[in-house]
Specification:
The chain contains four helices and three strands. The protein has helices at 3-23, 31-40, 48-57, 82-89; strands spanning 29-30, 61-68, 73-80. A three-stranded antiparallel β-sheet has the order 1-3-2. The longest helix is centred in the N-terminal third of the chain and has 21 residues, at 3-23.
Length: 101
């Protein structure tokens, strides 16, 4: 696969992840929900942890660890940040590496 195709896939993946998190405001999405939704869009989720880390590093999303020891539930929940919302609205700074329609 060419480098251009790989880059385009990453950009699409990142944009779709941001859109999903934007639609999940204010409750956010667990990694499992994000993975299932991205798979339904036909995207390869093999690099999901890496891509979520990239988006966090750019300040577009944040992660909170949630757990209920009594129920034995433990999840990482992701939320879009105000910077991520601004980016989707077209009012934030341009960030190379995210596809724009």
């Amino acid at each position: 696969m060419s480098d251009m195709v790989k880059l385009a896939e990453k950009e699409i993946f990142r944009m779709e992840a941001l859109r999903l998190l934007n639609s999940a405001v204010p409750v956010g999405c667990s990694r499992q929900v994000l993975e299932a939704a991205l798979k339904k869009l036909g995207l390869d989720t093999g690099e999901l942890p890496r891509e979520l880390s990239w988006l966090q590093g750019k300040g577009l999303i944040r992660m909170e660890h949630a757990e209920n020891r009594r129920l034995g539930i433990e999840r990482d929940v992701y939320f879009i940040t105000s910077e991520g919302m601004d980016y989707l609205d077209g009012t934030g700074e341009d960030i190379p590496g995210i596809g724009v329609d």
